[in-house]
Amino acid sequence: MKTTLGLLIVSLMFVWGCGQAPAEKRIRIGFAMDTLKEERWQRDKQLVEQRAREVGAVLDVQVANGDDAVQTKQCDNILAKGVDVLIVAPHNGEIAASIVEAAHRRGVPVIAYDRMIRNADVDLYVSH
Question: Residues 46-98: pLDDT tens digits?
């Protein structure tokens, strides 16, 4: 699991061509999670937070608690804040396609994490 999350953050750094973000241009990452009910998701969140700190990125984590409408609204809010990339662990892979469309309209790449987002052209899919 640590390797997968490490690769995820390294992928983000590759997208922007940097290893450590300079203070004046810190990469802003949105992480839209379905749930934190299982220990596995809590661990994933902690590892992404840790790695983001290590590379100097700003991370905005939102948790939808299994609610598609909440996840969509949270992603709209994350995108309105001006993130550079959006990681989505979707509750529903079909409904999350609208999140990808909204992000792409703003020029924000989307990484589908652990669950595929169907009927959408995600920029990267990371799973184990």
Answer: 999 999 999 999 999 999 999 999 999 999 999 999 999 999 999 999 999 99
Residues 6+ apart with CB under 8 A from 38: none
Nearest of 103, 126, 94 to residue 30 by alpha carbon: 103
For residue range 91-120, what is the model confidence (pLDDT) as tens digits? 999 999 999 999 999 999 999 999 999 999
Q: For residue 52, how many other CB atoms are within 10 A of its CB?
A: 22
Question: What span, in angstroms and rounded, lies between the C-alpha atoms of 49 and 120?
Answer: 26
> Amino acid identity, residue 35?
T
Determine the 3-state secondary structure of 92 from DSSP: coil
Q: How far apart are CA 115 and CA 127, in angstroms?
A: 7
Contact (Cβ atoms closer than 8 angstroms) between residue 29 and residue 87 = yes
The model's pTM: 0.83
**Which helix (H) or strand (E) covers residue 51, if one does?**
helix 39-55
DSSP states along 62-123: EE-TT-HHHHHHHHHHHHHTT-SEEEE--SSTTTTHHHHHHHHHTT--EEEESS--TTS--S
